[in-house]
Amino acid sequence: MKYRQLGASGLRVSTLALGTMGFGATGWATVVGNIDIDDARRQIGMARDAGVNLVDTADMYSSGASEEVLGHALGDARKDMLIATKVRLPMGEGPNDAGLSRYHVIRSVEASLRRLRTDHIDLYQAHGWDGHTPLEETLGAFDDLVRSGKVRYIGVSNYTGWQLMKACRLAGERRLAPIVSQQIYYSVHDRDAEVDLLPAACDQGVGTLIWSPLAGGLLTGKYRRDHETPAGSRFLGDWDQPPVKDQERFYDIIEVLVEVAQRHDRPPAQIALAYAIAKPAVTSLIVGARSTQQLEQTLAATDVQLSADDLAALDAVSAYHLPYPHWHQAMHNTDRLSPADLTLLESHFGG
After folding, report:
1. ω before 339 within 30° of 0 (cis)?
2. CATH number, domain at 273?
3. Which of 61, 153, 159, 275 is the catalytic position?
4. Is 107 exposed, middle or buried (0-12, 13-18, 19+ CB in 10 A)?
5. What is the pLDDT of residues 100-109, one digit of tens each?
6. Mean of the per-residue pLDDT values for the chain?
7. Where are the transmembrane segments (predicted)?
């Protein structure tokens, strides 16, 4: 297992992190599994043995059940594992049971600490943007939690580029706890994050944690053009996180993914993970599993070393049209490029 600095912080995290949406899953979360305490212990043990030191959850996963199962299952492993959780989405029907107000943030962290059976959260993340709450209020509450010792580091998730930049700027101006990470969706299937989010992270010294690097299971290789989908699998049109906007492009990506996988004698899923790990500004991939067998295969992705030709082939088949003003800058501003600019352009054009 390799470790990378989480943004400009001194914290080092493993390139794979254990996702726990399936822990104690109910309702919509059962799509990623329904893992009880015993299975959670086994997954945590496997992840720790492989060198994973970060486990990610959220208060709203199964209305707190994920945090509760994680808290029970960690036991003595807590001393070796960093816990990341999130706040923002609804935890009840009341008018203050969602959002990033000081009231909801403080109330939510206390509830998360109880469910997780710990005295501190290593990475506390805003689970999404709250346009109704002044950013000063949210960041002030986060800063108070860091100063009190209940939280070690602050991150955001699912922000746009301008929202991330605004949060970083305000935290710096007010000398509040800095934003050390963003958690976003990114994969070879959908590289939208390269346009603004990854360059912004590079520029601001923000680490990037990737959720659903296998696109919710799309990149496992079982969905292929002119192949029968295994019984019980979802259809492509059923995906909304992430959506499949162009089925033919998706099938083209899968075919190249399978070709690269065959050259390495590896499952396509491991190639998809290795691709994302190799990308600039990516710190860690959050991976979950329905079973210990699936987790064992996923953890083995850290052993895969893709060649320059492998990466170039996957880049080419998953290429996208640059939106304005990026295509204009690529045409006229290449004489003065910063490292953040290159995060986009090198990935898009292959250097």
Report:
1. no
2. 3.20.20.100
3. 61
4. middle
5. 999 999 999 9
6. 93
7. none
